[in-house]
Amino acid sequence: MKKIMTIALLSILTLSGCSALEEVNSSLEYADDATEYVNTVQDFANEVPAMSQDAITNAETRATLEKELELMKTEIEEFNATEPPQIAEGIHEKIVSSNQQLSDGIELYLNNIEKGQIDPKTLENSEIMKSIDNITGLAKQIKDLGN
């Protein structure tokens, strides 16, 4: 009887240990993915304003700007589809919320480009940049997940 109890106890401890290990691995993987996403958003924020300025007079840059905006929308969709570990659900929800605003802002800016209304000042003061600030502001919380 003692052997059976010992085996049962060891099995339970092993299974719960595996679950905890999976949660840690999942948290680290999510932190890496989220950090990579935040870096992508930061790169986008660094490149797009200058591109927008140049797009006023350069059709080639305008086409590149549109591609970058569309690519960012795809990145947003892919990140939103990420399944966060339980410990990161709150952070993920904040990012997804900011992503929705970012996506809406990108869509509005794309519509303006189609109408020939490219205004870098509008971009700087738009939901795009505010949303990017919100997302990049979560970088520390994401980093803390990995620690």
Task: Explain what you see.
The chain is mainly alpha-helical. The protein is about 85% helix and about 0% strand. It has 6 helices and no strands. Helix 1 runs antiparallel to helix 2 and helix 2 packs antiparallel against helix 3. The longest helix has about 55 residues.
Q: Can you write the helix and strand succession as a string?
A: HHHHHH
CA radius of gyration is 22 Å
Number of DSSP E strands: 0
The low-pLDDT segments are 5-18
Helicity range: over 70%
Structural class: mainly alpha
General form: elongated
What oligomeric state best describes the polypeptide chains here? single chain
Q: What is the percentage of strand-forming residues?
A: under 5%
Distance between the termini: 42 Å
Average pLDDT: 84
Q: Major beta sheet, specifics? A: none
* Tally of helical runs: 6
Please tag this protein with its features.
0% strand; 85% helix; elongated; single chain; 147 residues; 6 helices; mainly alpha
Short note summarizing the structure:
The two termini are 42 Å apart. With 147 residues, the protein is mainly alpha-helical. Helix 1 runs antiparallel to helix 5.
Describe the SSE topology:
Elements: H1 2-55, H2 59-80, H3 89-114, H4 120-124, H5 127-137, H6 139-145
Helix pairs in contact: 1-2, 1-5, 1-6, 2-3, 3-5
